[in-house]
Amino acid sequence: MATKARRRQTLPLVSGPECCPSGLSEPMNRESAEGLARLLKAIADPARLQLLALIRASDAGEVCACDFTEPLGLSQPTVSHHLKILTEAGLISREQRGTWAWFSLVPERIAEVAAVFG
Amino acid sequence: MATKARRRQTLPLVSGPECCPSGLSEPMNRESAEGLARLLKAIADPARLQLLALIRASDAGEVCACDFTEPLGLSQPTVSHHLKILTEAGLISREQRGTWAWFSLVPERIAEVAAVFG
DNA sequence: GACGGACATTGACGCTTGTCAATGTCCCAG
DNA sequence: CTGGGACATTGACAAGCGTCAATGTCCGTC
Fold first, then answer.
1. CB B54 to CB A12 under 8 A?
2. Is B36 on the interface with A (CB under 8 A)?
3. Of A12-16, A91-95, B1-5, which gets the smallest average pLDDT?
4. How far apart are CA A77 and CA B81, in angstroms?
5. Are residues B71 and A11, on separate chains, in Cβ contact within 8 Å?
6. Are B81 and B33 in contact (CB under 8 A)?
7. pTM of full prediction above 0.90
8. How many pairs of residues across A and B have Cβ atoms under 8 Å apart?
């Protein structure tokens, strides 16, 4: 019947209380995984990837909200929605300047994502 | 009324037909963005992040499917479901060995994700 | 102060996703 | 070939997500 006749792996189990949202190098407890997943979910969307790329590619390093709707082909409320998600995830920052809102990347937060796949 | 009295950004518009799923460095057309989003969506889940981390942390570089359910605290069908998603995304590979299924990382695919945030 | 323009918020809608119980398939041991 | 164990698949359900039209809020200009 082969009941557990196999060499069992020393599965590192859910590790103890981690400090930082560590990378893939170590096993990950549910809490860390959920935090990391929240961050990645904010990026894992076509429209939001385009938003990030547009900001990154801009000369000034910042882009007015009004300049997003046209290249994305999405309605103004939808763009606003995506910008909010990215902002709340800490990936971009928002600065009100008169009537307009300008958005720029938060490099530290982007690097944090990059560090996961070291 | 300020009709377009602002200096308009030279928004690089949706760039031409790109070849590779490029990083954030350049603007991204919808097609590339959707491909990249699909890949990132496969990773942006707590359970799947834990799966990847467990494989990465294993001594042999591969883990039997039966060793996942316990540390994840999820049912067997659910684990199987997540493993399928990761496999179809090309992030892990599956090898049937007798009754058991062993999974290991696909480093090239992981690196592909890392390259996005260069 | 009144108008208009730039964004945000709300509400509603369909679609996708994560989960599990139940069932199916395949492989090995007897 | 029969029984049981390892995984996969199916079906169902609640929750979350992406989108837009309609509306709200705030700011600058006349």
1. yes
2. yes
3. B1-5
4. 34
5. yes
6. no
7. no
8. 134
